[in-house]
Design a protein that fits this description.
Blueprint lengths: L7 H16 L6 E4 L2 E5 L24 E5 L2 E4 L5 H7 L19 H10 L7 H9 L46 E7 L18 E4 L20 E4 L8 E2 L3 E3 L3
Parallel strand pairs: 5-8
Antiparallel strand pairs: 1-4, 2-3, 4-9, 5-6, 6-7
Length: 250
């Protein structure tokens, strides 16, 4: 059965949106993350499990465990203002230079953009595998904290600006620049005994390090790939953007 077209007055806008999406060069800039196991979370004896306060705890990233994911694609780069404004031409966001990662968007806007592109937001497990690979590294480049390899500074940079912030699969900028919305609700990991009043269907998970870590004393824990942040999906943050994913069809 053929899909139903939109009403005639909206048909031109609908066709234009499809054309713009098809012409977007970002369509080809996706990386295949193959099916298989990866190491999720922090080990029980990790010195980073608790630091500063309960609100900045690594306890929500335990127990460390092996997870298996089907193959999926993920954007090599963060979505930029130029790309996002093709979807929402009337959008106005602070500091929006065309070549910079879009930020200050709600989870709902990020989700809608990905769906418009025929994609979706990655789950937090997909995000972590794409960033860490299969060996459980704490940073995209390995286990040694090296802030000069990523952007934790004052200004956002265009995607792909720092060649050493690249994951084992070739995904860029996951350790810094902007933090990223994921599709996942904030929930305990399988096997966790942690109690958190924020668990449930009120907060979405945000992953990745970001600019302005100086406000946190450049604590390395905030830039570690297993670190989980969370927020209500209708909130906007000056340091948070997103990238899209897509399931690999047989």
């Amino acid at each position: 059965m053929s899909p139903e077209l939109p009403p005639r007055p909206a048909r031109f806008v609908w066709l234009l949106a499809l054309l713009l999406a098809a012409c977007d060069p970002g369509t080809a800039e996706m990386v295949l993350v193959p099916e298989g196991d990866f190491l999720l979370g922090l080990a029980e004896n990790s010195e980073t499990l608790q630091f500063m306060s309960d609100m900045t705890s690594g306890m929500n990233a335990r127990p460390q465990q092996t997870r298996t994911l089907p193959a999926f694609y993920i954007d090599r780069y963060e979505v930029t203002y130029q790309q996002f404004l093709r979807f929402k031409p009337t959008g106005r966001y602070e500091g929006g230079k065309a070549e910079e990662p879009v930020r200050g968007v709600t989870w709902f806007e990020a989700d809608a953009y990905c769906l418009w592109r025929g994609k979706r937001l990655p789950s937090e497990f997909e995000w972590e595998k794409a960033a860490r690979g299969t060996d459980g590294r704490n940073f995209t480049w390995g286990n040694e904290y090296a802030p000069e390899k990523t952007n934790l500074g004052r200004q956002v940079l265009p995607p792909g600006s720092l060649a050493e912030d690249v994951s084992p699969y070739g995904v860029m900028g996951m350790n810094g620049n902007v933090a990223e919305w994921t599709a996942s609700w904030y929930a305990p990991y399988p096997g966790s005994d942690l109690k958190d009043e924020n668990f449930g269907s009120t907060h979405r998970v945000i992953r990745g390090g970001s600019i302005q870590k100086r406000q946190h004393g450049f604590l390395k824990e905030f830039a570690m790939l297993p670190f989980r942040n969370f927020a209500p999906p209708d909130h906007r943050f000056w340091d948070t953007g997103f990238r899209c994913a897509r399931s690999k069809t047989p």
